[in-house]
Structures are given as C-alpha cells and as structure tokens.
Amino acid sequence: MDKIDKLFLKALKASLCNKKVNWDFEIGTEEWLRLFRQSEIHHVLPMIYDAVYDCPSARGMDPAFLKPFKKKTVQQVMVQTIKTSEFLQLYQFLRQAGIRPVMVKGIVCRELYPNPDYRVSGDEDMLIPPDLFEQCHDRMLEYGMTVADPNVDIQGAYEVPYGKTGSPVYVELHKYLFSPDSGAFGGFNRFFETVHDQAVELEIQGVPVAAMDYTSHFFYLICHAFKHFLHSGFGLRQVCDIVLFANRYGSCIDWQEVLEKCRAVQAEKFTAALLKIGEKYLTFSPEKACFPDEWRQIQADETALLEDLLSSGIYGNSNMSRKHSSNITLSAVEADRKGKMKGKVKGKGSRHGNAILKTLFPPLKVMKARYLYLRKYPFLLPAAWCSRILKYRREISRSTENNAADSIRIGNERIKLMEEYGIIEKQ
C-alpha cells in the first residue's frame, strides 16, 4: 500500500466510528486529489469527505480546492435521502397491496452506518418469489414505476430494473439473487430458497421492512462480494457492509452454518481474509460479532486481497481493462468447476486460452441477454458476435484505460489470487 491507500483506510475507519481524522502533516494537492479519486471509485466520497474536511491538513488548503468535493458530497447525501424516503413509500404501497418483498443489501446495510445516507446506494434490491413476480410487477407499474431497460425480457430475466420519472429512486426486482445461467455462481441460489419463510422484520425510519434472516443475509453479503470478486473485483464499501453487519448481528448469526456454506462454494479462505481486513483496517470486532475460534484458525493472508480491493473500485469498475478481465476470470472459474483447467493465460492454446475465445464469442445463452433478436432468430449468433467485437474495438479506441493486453495481465494476476485462496485449483 502507498501513502494514499493508508490515508484512505484510516479515513474510512474514522467514518465507520463516526469520528474525524486529526491529520496535521503535509498532504499535497495531488495527494488530496488521489484520495478523493479513490473515494469516488469506491463510492464512499461523503464518508471520506466528512471524516477529513476539518482536519488541520485540510484546513491549510485553499477552500476553493475542497469546494467541488463538498458540493458532490452534499448532492450525493441529498439525493440518497430522497431515494430512501421515496423507496420506503413504494415499499409501504407494496405491503398494503399484500406483497412482502424481502430487502437485501442497500437499505438494510445503510442503517448500520452512523450516518446512513452517507453510505450511498445506486439502487435498492427487492427479492420476490418467482410466482409472485407478475403481481409485484403490476403493482410497481400502478405506483408509477417503469421498467428502466426497454430491452429486458421481464419474463425471462432473473432481475428487472425499475425507475420513476422525475425521481431518483431505482429498484431492481429479483426473482433470484444470482443469475441461474451462470456456471460460476448460479448454484448459489440453492442456499436462499427458504428466505421468504424465514424473513425477519426490521424497522427503518419507522417503516417495517422484511429482510432475510441474519445468517442468510450475512452469507448473502459474502456471496455477493464473492460473485464480484470472480468477475473483476469489488471495493471497500462492501467490506464495510460485511463488517458492520457482523458487528451488529453477530450474536444472531450461525457462524458454523456460514462456514459450511462457504466451504461448499470454496470461499472460506476468501471470507477469512476479508474479515482479517475488517479487523486490521476497519472496525470488525471478533468479540462483538461472537466470532468463533474455528473461523479464526483459518490460515489466509489478507495482503493480496486488500491490494486487489483497493485497485478494484466499487464493483471492479476502476477501468475498462479490469472490467474486461472478468471474461478471463469467470471462464477460469467455470472451467475449474468442470474440472477442465489447463495452463496459464497467454493466448490461444494455453491454459486459459479458451477464455479469450469466450470473451470474443460467448455462448448463445449469454448473448441472448444483450441481443434480443437472438431469442427469435438464434441462427444470427455470428452477426451478434461481429457486433460485439466491433463495439469492443470502439471502446478500446475511446479509452486509454482499455487495453486487451492489460485485461489478460489483470486476469492472470487475479487467477493466481483465486488459486491462493483455494477458489480454483492451483496448477
């Protein structure tokens, strides 16, 4: 870690404790820019700005320099406040209509923070039994929500996004928590088949909200982070969610059940490393969380994972090269699950050379999600491949942070990381 990474982690921890940093050493303009840039790619700018703006090091800066970051912070917090309020109105409407969606992540996790609206969310995730989807969909439309993506197949999609004209509220309505078509993590859905029957009631701003039981929700937060890790990575905000959830509800979490399920998906070392990061750099308290000895005995070096998280951004979106590396890592995981892994990614014919081919030529079931005409005319798959390749080339030409060689390098490095944590077999 360099200086900025260390400052970022210290400010993040201070925010989780509802404290301010007291830095009184010189921080250059470029260093402040890097710190705020890091905050933005991890979607925690309000948290970081609030923790640092009044420290001696910041007070020595030209006020005009901090003004844009203050403005962004105020805007993000105001928008989040509106989103939360309007979402709770929608949720109450659905409950009054006899529909009880189970909430995951966003609004449940935000309530764990000292300043909930400083932990901004892009959307709210609701889980509904598949057989109740149409009823919930109709009520959403009645309320004034509209399907945000006109190309989505609302019958076939496992999640459907909704927005509302003139409002920042954005909701994803899930039939399943993970894409059933994914060879890497589609099987995770089996762990959440009974969550509707086991849901607990939480109160958020005076509104009763159904959520998964504490053990299932904690395991889901792990699985969600794990899913993004298998793609192109995830950032520190998700670690904060996991840490705060464990601290608040640890006594209600069945840690043995979580361990057994983590082992079933080869994520126990990954999770142990994640919690080590939480304990060392954030606010994870093994005592508050009732963290058992069996978990503490798992040997996992958190250093490499932390470096990956810091460079990742919120969902592995720090740059386009990293985003495109997900094609390599996901192919590696799927191949490992099928027992077909061979050699390192260097190009065609090598260990993960097939990953590059799958990047350019995904299977029909994957392409159908983006190219709707394939659902009716599957024989046009070669034409869709050509469109995909042309689009990829245009993206590369527009960005200095989008390079095929970099994608392969990042993919290779992240495959080694997955081997280190026992996610895929070491070769």
Structural notes for this entry:
The chain has 427 residues and is α+β, with helices and mostly antiparallel strands. It has 20 helices and seven strands. The chain has helices at residues 3-16, 29-41, 45-52, 56-59, 63-96, 106-110, 133-143, 214-231, 236-249, 255-264, 268-281, 293-296, 303-312, 320-324, 326-337, 353-360, 364-370, 373-376, 381-398, 404-420, and strands spanning 102-104, 124-127, 146-147, 159-164, 167-174, 200-204, 207-211. Strands 1-2-5-4-3 form a five-stranded mixed beta sheet. Strands 6-7 form a two-stranded antiparallel sheet. Helix 1 (3-16) packs across helix 3, helix 2 (29-41) runs antiparallel to helix 3 (45-52) and helix 3 packs across helix 5 (63-96). The radius of gyration is 22 Å and the shape is globular.
